[in-house]
Amino acid sequence: MDLDRFQEEAHHLVDWLTEYRRTIETRPVRAQTAPGTIAAQLPASPPVSPEDCRAILDDFERIVMPGITHWQHPRFFAYFPANATPPAVLAEILTAGIAAQCMLWQTSPAATEMETRILGWLALMLGLGEGWHGVIQDSASSATLVAVLVGRERATDWQADDEGLGACPPLAVYASEEAHSSVEKAVRIAGLGRQALRLVPTDADFAMRPEALDALIRADLEAGIEPACIVATLGTTGTGGIDPLARIGEIAQTHDIYLHVDAAWAGSALVLPETRWMIEGLKFADSFVTNPHKWLGVTFDCSAHFVRKPDELIRTLTVNPAYLTSQETGRVVDYRDWGIPLGRRFRALKLWFVLRAYGIEGLEAMLRRHIELTAELAGWIEADPAFELTSKPSLALLTFRYRPQGQDDTALDALNTALVERINDDGRIYLTQTRIRGRVAIRFSIGQTDTERAHVETGWAVVREIAQTL
Length: 470
Known about the structure:
The protein has 470 residues and is an alpha/beta fold.
């Protein structure tokens, strides 16, 4: 494709994207295709001769789009948001067009220096305080893995990195029983084994119980097991639980344990001064992660990972072959030493675009709107005798279940599972389920950039309508 044709097709593609976003509410939120439908329409072998780009785009609309779940739909209430605001999309076009590989300062000085500065902006916006150094990871899962690795090395005085875990005492990692599955995955990838993970019981608000954490740590120490890392969660996926960071931090300090704070979703809300009670005690933490690609309108992937001591992170992860050294090595930041992959995209550009396009005021308005809508939805649920809240609103997340009279818990589990499936098959909204104290509940997460009160009203009306058909 020559550049003239590229320009023509690019204009056509932008027109298509604009119309897609303008008319997205006419589409079902969740893909309505059966397994195998898309694959059946794709040839078994690649084309031998070149094909026209417009024909490819036409096939994209015909084959691919029916199998897309529309995360930018304002009635997307599942999981957590993965927003892609127009400024972020524009930045992604530039990122793809420039196609820089940003592993070293030398391979793209602007990318490195912008990442450092823009994460400094974000730390100020979130009220994190002084002493943090930022890096953009692909996801909070990667940041948690890096935290577990650094905790492992600090607990073994870097012996595990050098000699392997066989030369070290057994290790343990601690997290809430409501913590994200990425914590278990990190423990397994780090070579500690699933049995090294201690799931700490939670209180009535689904927050980690500090006294239970301390008891587990003391029991491990008596058994000759070395505590390596504590993962505190701000905004658990199932219920939005907020772990008490100050009390957990004091325990981490007492026992000299690496403390990582997973605020993948809820951390965005720290833009609002009124929510910063969540990070009371952050002074005890060694690392902190939040995802602008969830609730701040930055396209996936863009996970902001902050550390107190970058030297520990670099010591854990650096490998220095001759082909990765340059005349600036040691005098500049080389972010390839701050994460798992060597290759890195220019992720800071889209964060820069979004922060400038919306400003703090614009982001605050969006966050407050979502939180207020969630509180209003909670009132509607409480006012309906056929439903009950199963966890109170946490920022922009709540859980509930359908509870008609005369049903035991087992029957209610089946009923609510069927309700979620019927809702999602219907296509007007998209919800996900969870389990709370072993019982099925339904999550309602409000966070898509364009969601307004009318979309939430429609969502609640759909839930009630379909529930009455069961």
